[in-house]
Specification:
Elements lengths: L23 H14 L10 H22 L8 H16 L8 H15 L1 H8 L3 H27 L1 H4 L6 H7 L6 E3 L5 E3 L12 H15 L5 H21 L2 H20 L3 H26 L1 H8 L6 H23 L10 H7 L14 H32 L5 H19 L10 H19 L6
Antiparallel strand pairs: 1-2
């Protein structure tokens, strides 16, 4: 954004000497793993709804605090205007004739808002490249532990698998059959949930573990940190293989390529080469480990990615949902089908009728089409594009090397999340919260360093 940089109160500035104390942003990053992890404990499924809501509620509470307490707010980012437009459209859709219930629609609107609010409050709490780097290390540790637990759940399921899985997931998946595979010795093996209660859900944080782990491995961190980061990266890729979520493998590969290319554009050719070689070795080594733990089906599953060209593979896996979005849904609901007709918010809070039944969205594009029609896809897509451009500008800043590195990492991570709109629904889930949290944090640091367009 153009304009002058707002001067922050002295209390928010990083101390001249020593490390800045931990603040809300660091604890928020931890909470996004710690809160869902409660659900792997026996007897907690009865409290699943409030526990799951709490992860979103913290984001909303931070926004309320920001509105009423933050002084000298950081200059607005370009993406915030797009987000305001998205929320305005959703508010209109709340009174759409096809919205099944006001309560369900309001819950869906609240989910969208909770996911996007970090774009507003994160710039206030993250005030330096050092703090942003610390948050990335926290995300690596949380994602890495998540991934290691996922690997252990295949290695020793009796000890590490949660006693209960999400009842919502089981009712939709018709038991554990669709979320399991035949492992080594012919035993049924559950796709690892990691620190969550849904089989296979470790794949999301495992992608971040792989990216951030490799980034810190080639950094100038102490040797023990680089070794731990390498372990986390390997565990992340192994967890992706064992979860059998092929899209997470492809997204992780894309994230690593983006980071390597960005390093090259920054002129860091040596580090880019080191990163790429190490990434290739981790991909192979983690695959060997996953096959040893999970059996031949792991190999067979991922070899299908190379059975045809990428577009054909995608069409076979998720192409029908994309065709339905821009075929049936666009034709029948070009301006949306009402708010609160799909997703967990609708499942928990919505009521439906024969005229306005519940609907299903397997990919984010379909969800956007249902919630606001083609205009919703344009507005949210615009927000993602503007955000990516801003992150690229930060990554290309030559006179702030540490901030440029942070920009490269956030760009790679967030492009990976954005790519998931073609195969998942990240922007009504915690993955979306992390996207906007990183985007907002990078914007806040960029503005304080006088970067135009951050």
């Amino acid at each position: 954004m153009n304009g002058r940089v707002q001067t922050m109160p002295a209390s928010m500035a990083m101390p001249a000497t020593g490390r800045a104390p931990w603040g809300f942003a660091e604890w928020f990053a931890i909470s996004q793993t710690a809160l869902p992890a409660i659900l792997i404990m026996p007897g907690t499924q009865a409290f699943r709804l409030p526990i799951r809501i709490s992860a979103f509620g913290i984001s909303l509470a931070a926004f309320v605090w920001y509105v009423f307490n933050a002084k000298g707010k950081v200059r607005q980012s370009q993406a915030q205007s797009w987000v305001f437009a998205v929320m305005a459209l959703l508010a209109v859709m709340l009174v759409h004739p096809s919205t099944p219930s006001f309560t369900g629609g309001l819950a869906q609107l609240a989910v969208y808002f909770a996911v996007m609010t970090p774009l507003f409050w994160a710039p206030w709490f993250v005030d330096s490249p050092e703090r942003l780097a610390r948050i990335m290390w926290i995300l690596l540790v949380c994602s890495g532990i998540n991934s290691i637990v996922g690997v252990l759940q295949v290695y020793d399921p009796d000890r590490w698998l949660p006693a209960e899985f999400s009842r919502v997931m089981l009712s939709q998946s018709m038991g554990l059959g669709p979320v399991s595979f035949i492992g080594r010795n012919g035993q049924m093996t559950i796709r690892p949930p990691g620190l969550f209660d849904t089989p296979g859900s470790v794949a999301g944080p495992a992608s971040y573990a792989a990216l951030l782990g490799l980034v810190f491995t080639v950094s100038r961190s102490p040797a023990w940190k680089r070794l731990l980061a390498l372990v986390f990266a390997g565990a992340g890729l192994a967890a992706i293989y064992l979860s059998e979520v092929r899209i997470s493998w492809a997204v992780t590969l894309g994230m690593l390529l983006v980071y390597s290319v960005t390093l090259s554009r920054q002129g860091k050719f040596g580090r880019a080469t080191q990163f790429s070689i190490l990434a290739g070795g981790i991909f192979v080594g983690s695959f060997i480990l996953a096959v040893a733990l999970g059996g031949q089906q792991i190999s067979d599953r991922f070899m299908t990615l190379f059975a045809a060209d990428p577009l054909t593979v995608y069409r076979d896996a998720r192409g029908a949902h994309l065709d339905a979005t821009f075929g049936t849904l666009l034709t029948e609901h070009p301006f949306g089908a009402g708010l609160g007709r799909w997703g967990m918010a609708a499942s928990y809070f919505g009521t439906f009728s024969q005229q306005n039944p519940a609907m299903w969205a397997e990919i984010q594009l379909a969800g956007w089409m249902l919630d606001g029609g083609i205009l919703m896809i344009i507005l949210y897509g615009g927000a993602l594009i503007v955000t990516a451009i801003a992150e690229w500008k930060v990554a290309m800043v030559a006179d702030h090397p540490r901030l440029a590195t942070c920009g490269a990492v956030v760009l790679a991570a967030n492009l990976g999340t954005a790519a998931m709109i073609f195969s998942f629904t990240p922007f009504v889930a915690q993955m979306g919260i992390q996207y906007w949290f990183l985007a907002g944090a990078l914007h806040g640091v960029g503005v304080r360093n006088g970067i135009d367009g951050a």
